[in-house]
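Field reference: sequence -> structure
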Amino acid sequence: MLQLYQAEWCPYSHAIRQRLTELGLSWVAQPVEAVPEDRNAMREATGHDVIPVLVAA
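Structure field:
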């Protein structure tokens, strides 16, 4: 299972969601805040503060 830290408004996130679905991979969307300074949970989980971020769950 994969976790995708993403935002619905992000075109890069959209492309990743579409490709994961095309490949038939299991994934879970983890929505993140629009403001980078408010992305503490994602930063702690992944070490990144930009989206999209794909990690193995």
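Note: The chain has one domain: 2-56.
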